[in-house]
Write a structure and sequence with these properties.
Length: 320
C-alpha cells in the first residue's frame, strides 16, 4: 500500500490531532503518501482532500479538537453516499483509510469494508462508548476537565451549604460521570446504565445534612435526563438548595492529557502497521493495557461497551 487517507468524523475529541500526527509520520516513515480528508465523510464525498506532509502535523500533538475538522453527514449511511466516497478515494489513488471517531464513524468504516475498501477504525470520542476497547481517545481529557470543575464547584457548594447537580456529556453512556464522580468524591452518580430512586437520593442528602455536611455533589450523565429536570424532581422530596451546572461542550475542548496523547499515538502507529500489511476491516482498541485489533463487523454487531459498574458500587459504599 502506497497511499492512505485519514479523516475524523462525528464529535471532536482531545487527542484526535495526536492520532493524525502519528498516522501521518508513521506512514511517511514507511514510504507512504498520506492524504487528509477535511470534514469527515462530507469532505470525502465532496473531494475535500489534501496531501499531508511531516510539517503539516507539526505543533499539533498538544492541540484539542481536530485540524481536519469534522461534520455530521447522515447521507453516508446510504449506499449512494458510500459509493460516491469510494469514487473520490479512487480518484486520489487512496488505497486504505484510517477513520477516527465514534459509533457513527465506525459504521461508515464498516460500510467501506463491506464494499471491499480497506478501512481501519480508531476510537475517538469523549463518551468512551465504543465496543472493543477499554478507553477511547479523548475520554481521559474529558474526565479530567469535569473533575477540575467538580473540585471548583465543591468550594462554592460548601460556602453556601448547597446541593449541586452537575450535568456532564456522554450521550447514552455514563463513563464520564462515573469516573469523574468517583475521582471527585461525588455523593451520588446518576448514569443511564443503572437505575436510581430519587427518594433514596434525597434521603442520602438529608443524612449528610443531619451529620453537619456542608455540601452535596451529584454527577448526572446527560443520557439520564437534564440537570434542571433532575432538580425539579428532587424538589418534590424537600428543599435542598439545589443548583444546576451544565458543563456542556466545554468538556470536549482543551489540550489532551499525556494519557490521551500516548494512547492516540499508539493507535495511529498501529493503524499504519496494519494497512502496511494489507489488512483492513479492523478497529483498534486497548484491552488490559494492550493494543489490540479486531474485526470491525464482529465488534459493531456482536459486542457492546459496558461501563465499570464496580466503580458505581464502590462510590455508593464510600460516599457517606
Amino acid at each position: 500500500m502506497k497511499r492512505i487517507g485519514i479523516l475524523t468524523s462525528g464529535g471532536d475529541a482531545p487527542g484526535m490531532n495526536a492520532a493524525i500526527r502519528a498516522v501521518t509520520r508513521k506512514a511517511i516513515f514507511e514510504g507512504m503518501e498520506v492524504y487528509g480528508i477535511n470534514y469527515g465523510y462530507a469532505g470525502l464525498v465532496a473531494g475535500d482532500i489534501r496531501r499531508l506532509d511531516i510539517s503539516d502535523v507539526g505543533d499539533k500533538i498538544q492541540r484539542g479538537g481536530t485540524f481536519l475538522y469534522s461534520a455530521r453527514y447522515p447521507e453516508f449511511a446510504t449506499e449512494e453516499g458510500q459509493l460516491k466516497g469510494i469514487e473520490q478515494l479512487k480518484k486520489f489513488g487512496i488505497e486504505g483509510l484510517v477513520v477516527i471517531g465514534g459509533d457513527g464513524s465506525y459504521h461508515g468504516a464498516l460500510a467501506l469494508t463491506k464494499h471491499g475498501f480497506p478501512a481501519i477504525g480508531l476510537p475517538g470520542t469523549i463518551d468512551n462508548d465504543i465496543p472493543g476497547t477499554d478507553f477511547t481517545i479523548g475520554f481521559d481529557t474529558a474526565t479530567n476537565t469535569v473533575l477540575e470543575a467538580v473540585d471548583r464547584i465543591r468550594d462554592t457548594a460548601t460556602s453556601h451549604v448547597r446541593t449541586f447537580i452537575i450535568e456532564v456529556m456522554g450521550r447514552d453512556a455514563g463513563d464520564i460521570a462515573l469516573w469523574a464522580g468517583v475521582a471527585g468524591g461525588a455523593d451520588d452518580i446518576i448514569i443511564p446504565e443503572h437505575n436510581f430512586d430519587m427518594k433514596v437520593v434525597a434521603g442520602k442528602i438529608q443524612e449528610g445534612r443531619d451529620r453537619g455536611k456542608k455540601h452535596c455533589l451529584i454527577i448526572l450523565a446527560e443520557g439520564v435526563m437534564g440537570g434542571n429536570e433532575f432538580a425539579e424532581k428532587l424538589r418534590e422530596y424537600g428543599n435542598y438548595h439545589a443548583r444546576v451546572t451544565v458543563l456542556g461542550h466545554v468538556v470536549r475542548g482543551g489540550s489532551p492529557t499525556a494519557r490521551d496523547r500516548v494512547l492516540a499515538s499508539k493507535f495511529g502507529w498501529r493503524a499504519v502497521e496494519l494497512l502496511k500489511e494489507g489488512k483492513g476491516g479492523l478497529c483498534i482498541g486497548i484491552l488490559d493495557n494492550k493494543i489490540v485489533a479486531a474485526d470491525i463487523v464482529d465488534t459493531l454487531e456482536n459486542k457492546k461497551h459496558r461501563p465499570d459498574l464496580e466503580l458505581y458500587r464502590l462510590n455508593n459504599e464510600i460516599s457517606l
